[in-house]
Every structure is written in structure tokens, then in C-alpha cells.
Amino acid sequence: MRLLIANGYLIDPSQGVKAGRNLLIEDGRVAGILNYSDDVPEGAEVFDAAGLIVAPGFIDLHVHLREPGQEYKETIATGAAAAVAGGWTSVCAMPNTDPVNDNAAVTRFIIEQAERAQLANVFPIGAITKGSRGEELAEMGEMREAGVVAVSDDGRPVPSAGMMRRAMEYARGFDLPVVDHCEDRSLAADGVMHEGVWSLRLGLRGIPALAEELDAWRDCALAELTGARVHLAHVSTRGAIEAVRRAKERGLSVTCEVTPHHFTLTDEAVEGYDTNTKMNPPLRSRDHVQAILDALSDGTIDAIATDHAPHHADEKALEFDRAPFGITGLETAIGLAFDRLVHRGIIGLDRLVELCSTNPARIFKLEGRGTLRPGAWGDVTILDPNLRWTFDARRSRSKSRNTPFDGWTFQGAAVATIVAGRVLYTHPSLEDRRRAIA
Ligand SMILES: NC(=O)N[C@@H](CC(=O)O)C(=O)O
Ligand SMILES: [Zn+2]
């Protein structure tokens, strides 16, 4: 099986490639980077990528796929379909399923379901503590053996510093990164949105920025104490970013991600009490969003991750106070990244590829991903920086539609998604781009 992605502009920060080149994929793996003028290899199918950016496959470090246990919200297959429709060749699945992914049997089940779906690659993340209850460490060794790429109690942050210390020491022994949902629940209490002028005005209970910042400082300090690899999930506050910046200056193995909704929206978006503006961490005030934009451009932020968190319409139809936290994000992330970051001059195209592919692969040590070196997996995301398109949530591949971006128009999109040399998604604007060569 041969696929030649021809006439595109290749951007691969892992090997410093930024040039018009053809990319050849053979039997699922990158076979080589060729010049436009080189002969088309015998029997190759040609994908004409003229005018498009060809990048190593995008990797989302943070999704909730809801299987096992809440298949009415999402399954591994529907989540993986939404992923490829959004330009993601790989997604990393958080363990807050039912049962929690805190043992090898659940890990293996997730991997089997993903293999059955034959869509995006799915890398499971195991729990830090049994049932994510924060009481007893989970069997990280056995989960690692079964295929987890990281551990996290995302959604149920580890409350005790002592437990987190032991978790980091344990995870370090298995060379697993600890993905940290930073939230001091004693401060967040029963808040439902960012604490500030808008929570006052709207009469909703606030979650102070300090709830995230305190844990971020704590866990960066613990990263120093333990030497563990620590990755801060969905940072949303100036203080958490400052903690990461300091940790990096000290040479610690600390990285972080940001979500598209946190670099796009402020807490003002909650004004209409739309429960699709309710997520954890909450949308923050303008000053925090500015800190995120600065950190995206100066390199403090390592990755863009969606925190895709599907919920059923009936659950989101409750009052703001009672609706669950979370929004979907797989299909709007790249549109938002182009529209809000690239076209506004906050990041360049190579930085976009770093944030969505090179760095995620490095942070979770995903072998043969995030690069188009010969021998790497033939995972490719093709981008059209200028395509104008409108997101229609009713046509989403996800089972859920809880997004604040329904009906939004974007400039820039992921227009084709290729996993191990198989073209799994193409935007309708790319019809007629593929031909078989005898
Ligand atoms: N990010 C969210 O708003 N929700 C997450 C869990 C969580 O992190 O609270 C979910 O699983 O729904
Ligand atoms: Zn979380």
C-alpha cells in the first residue's frame, strides 16, 4: 500500500523541515520525503495537496470518550470519528469512565475498542489512585504494561499533597507522566464559574483562580522534590502559567496544555446562562486569557488539547448550577487555533504544528508519532489555513452536541486526516484530489 501526498508544503518541526515536498507512505509508515520533480513511485495512490500544509498527525492529549459506562454520551468509536473529522490522528483518553480506568482490564478494553473502530489512535491514560478516590495508588505498572501512556485523576484532583508526592514517586519509577488537574476543591467548593465581576453580576457561585494556582505551585514544587514528569492539564490562569514558567526555568520536567475554549472565550460568555459555557476549569476573565495568549506565543505552553467532554443534551438542559461541567471540542479546535492564534499573529504555522503534534508526542513519549521521519507512523494532518467554514453541531460525529461554538465561522481548518497511511477524513472541498496511479 503506497500513498504519495504530493505538491503540499511540509512542516515538520521534529526535523526542521519547512518546504514544498512530497511525502511517501508505504505500508502504514513514512517511506520518505521526496522532491516534487521525483517520479511517482510505482502503484502509489496520489493525494494532491497543492496549496495545503502537510504536517505530522495531530495528537490530542486530553479527551473524555465515556466508554466504558456512559456510551449514551460518547463511545470510543464515535469519539475517534469526531477526532479524525477534527484533524486529530491520535487522542489520549482520560480514565474517568465507569468503571474508572485504574486497572489493566479496563486499559485493554479501551485499546480493543479503538482497534475495532479503526479510526484515530487511542492512547489510554490510567488513574493515579484507585477509582480516582485519592486514597490508594492504582496499579500503574500493570496498566503501563497494558498500554497506558500517562496517569491522571482528571476531574477528581488528588487532594492531598502527601498522596500526590507518592504518586509522582511511583509514576517516576514507571517513567509515566503525571497529568495534573490542578484544583484545590476546598477553594473551588461548589463554584460553577470563574469568581469575578461576572459571577457577581450573574449571581453564580465563583471558582477563584487561586484554586488552580495553588495546586499548580504545589505540584511544580512536588515535581522538583520527586523528579517526576508532570504535565499540567488545561491551564487557565495567569498564576498556573507563572508556576510552569518558573518550573521550566529551574529545569524541571514540567509541561502544560491549554484548551481552545480557554484561549478563545472569557467568563463574559456565561452571560446568557448557556450551560455550554460551563466547564472545569471555568472560562476566565480577560487578564487570564491574555496570560494564556502570551504563554502560547512565548513557548511556555507546550500543547493544545481539547478536553473534549461530551454530555447528553438532557443533562445540559438543567439550570446552570446543576448542569455537568464540560464541552465537546474535537471538531472545532483547529478552526479556533487558526482563527484565534495563527491569523491574529499570536503563533506561526510551525508553532501550531509543535503545539498539536511535535510536543504532545514528546510529552507522552509516543514512539514514531509527531514526526514525519522515515520509519515513523504514516499519521498526517493536512491543513488549509484559508478555508472558510461554519461548524454545524447537528452534523458532528460526536454523540453529544454540548458546544458553545455551534454556528461559528472559522478561517482555517484541518481538511484531511490520515492514520497509518489510510485517508480517514477529507473535507468536501478536497473532492477530486485523489487519484490512483497504475
Ligand atoms: N473538563 C470538564 O469540564 N469535565 C470533565 C471532567 C473534569 O475535568 O471536570 C468531564 O469528564 O466531563
Ligand atoms: Zn480536568
Number of helical runs? 13
Helix content: 25-40%
Whole-number mean pLDDT: 97
Classification by helices and strands: alpha/beta
Estimated radius of gyration: 21 Å
Number of strands: 19
- Oligomeric grouping of the chains: single chain
- Main sheet specs: 9 strands, mixed
CATH-defined fold name of the largest domain: TIM Barrel
What overall geometry do the principal axes of the alpha carbons give? globular
Architecture of the largest domain in CATH?
Answer: Alpha-Beta Barrel
CATH class of the largest domain: Alpha Beta
Content of β-strand: 15-25%
Q: Any low-confidence stretches, pLDDT <50, length ≥5?
A: none
Bound molecules: N-carbamoyl-L-aspartate, zinc ion
Domain unit count: 2
- End-to-end CA span: 13 Å
Task: Kindly describe this structure.
There is one protein chain. With 438 residues, the protein is of the alpha/beta class. The protein folds into two domains: 2-54 and 378-436, Urease, subunit C, domain 1; 57-363, Alpha-Beta Barrel (TIM Barrel), CATH 3.20.20.140. The chain has helices at 76-85, 104-117, 140-146, 161-173, 185-188, 197-202, 209-226, 238-249, 260-264, 286-298, 313-316, 333-342, 349-363, and strands at 2-12, 17-26, 29-34, 45-48, 53-56, 58-63, 88-93, 121-124, 151-152, 178-180, 193-194, 206-207, 230-232, 254-258, 303-304, 380-390, 409-419, 422-426, 434-436. The strands form four sheets. Strands 1, 2, 3, 4, 5, 16, 17, 18 and 19 form a nine-stranded mixed sheet that branches. Strands 9-10-13-14-15 form a five-stranded parallel sheet. Helix 2 (104-117) packs parallel to helix 3. The radius of gyration is 21 Å and the shape is globular. The structure holds N-carbamoyl-L-aspartate and zinc ion. Residues 64, 96, 154-155, 181, 279-280, 307, 309, 325-326 line the site of N-carbamoyl-L-aspartate. This is Dihydroorotase.
